[in-house]
Amino acid sequence: MYTNILTVALGLASVPLVASHPGEDHHAEAMKRREFLKNNVANLDHCAGKLDALGVTKRSIQRRHSRIHGIREKRGLVARDQHHEGRSYNAEVSQAAEFKSNSSCVLSPEEILGPYYVAGESIRSDITEDQTGVPVHLDISFIDVNTCQPLVDSWVDVWQANATGVYGGVVQEGFENRNDTWEETWGLTWLRGIQKTDTDGAVHFETIFPGHYEGRTLHIHVLTHPHATPLPNNTIIDERASHVGQMYFDQDLVDRVEQLAPYNTNHQPVTSNAEDEFLQGDLEAGGYPYLQYQLVGDKLEDGLLAWLNLGVNGTEDKVVDPITTYHPRPTKPANACA
User: Fold this and answer.
1) DSSP one-letter string for 164-233
2) Do 175 and 166 meet the contact criterion of CB atoms below 8 Å apart?
3) Which stretches are annotated as coiled coil (predicted)?
4) What is the average pLDDT across 276-288?
5) Exposed end of the chain (fewer CB within 10 Å): N or C?
6) Could you tell me which residues come within 8 angstroms of residue 39 by beta carbon, excluding any fewer than 6 positions away?
7) Maximum distance among all alpha carbons in the chain?
8) Is the pLDDT of residue 85 over 50?
């Protein structure tokens, strides 16, 4: 691993990453997640008072308010009167209340990583590249569950599937024999990126609404690195990680998005929120990992601003399992997932 880091740092080669994984065992990982939640808090309700006193909540509201109005002004969009706050619609709430949410979820230690994590991605806020879909402006905050203080100067990885349920950068389980998919995704970087949390523990990403793939409902992955150091090529390869988790969208929103192009060309089997073991385990434990959102314009295609508070144990620091390796871009391997 260290040889690969040195190669990248010196800029000697442009090397895509290859995910090494035996396949995605959704049930086994969901059971690990539930076991973790048995002995840990699942949300940030106990931190609400302190976050208010520290001014974090107020600044979060102001940040989200400024961001969505900036997007609207830049794109010449008119806001829809109706907004969404996760559990219910309410057109009469104040402007401040629109961007305040108690929804939160506590992330797990690194063991619940999943097979599609790729180390060494670029430090950038816009991870869209050439992928098409409903624009999503992510505003996510990280809070230490023990101190109720923002997690400052921590590097945050996000990654997700595209509108048709495919991950870039890996050969996805179930797609190994599809030459077209392999050629399109091997070593690519779309919908993956890294940002550093600010003084309120917040990061911002520009992405698209994810698509579904077999066995899972729609979600976005997130992972935090406690002590990472950027390389000269503006990437991070860190053998340590603190927490990993997933963020979800309300089913009514998912259903509406999936009717739009190119989402409606995705013919993989659908798993709803109610059928997803990961999400249901979080909800049963008291977490609420749904991204809250507000439409940017007067139609869904204009995109949305989505936000969520995520709890972590600030002292957690574990070695990441070696599920990724660096190689020069190869001809198609005999076994891409080995």
Assistant:
1) TS--TTS--TT-TT-HHHHHHHTT--TTEEEEE--TTSEEEEEEEPPPPBTTB-S-EEEEEESS----TT
2) yes
3) none
4) 92
5) C
6) none
7) 59
8) no
3-state secondary structure of 247: strand
Contact 117, 19 (CB under 8 A): yes
| 235 has pLDDT over 80 | yes
Q: Calculate ∠ Cα 98-200-224, nearest 5°.
A: 105
Nearest to 33 by CA among 276, 225, 307: 276
- Sort 334 into a burial class: Cβ within 10 Å, 0-12 / 13-18 / 19+: exposed
- Partnered with residue 307 across adjacent β-strands are 139, 292
Token couple for 266: 């995705």
Hey, which bits of 197-249 come out as E strands?
202-208, 220-225, 240-241, 243-247
Better-predicted residue by pLDDT, 45 or 181: 45
**Summary count for the chain: helices (H), strands (E):** 8, 13
As to burial, measured by CB atoms within 10 angstroms (0-12 exposed, 13-18 middle, 19+ buried), residue 312 is buried
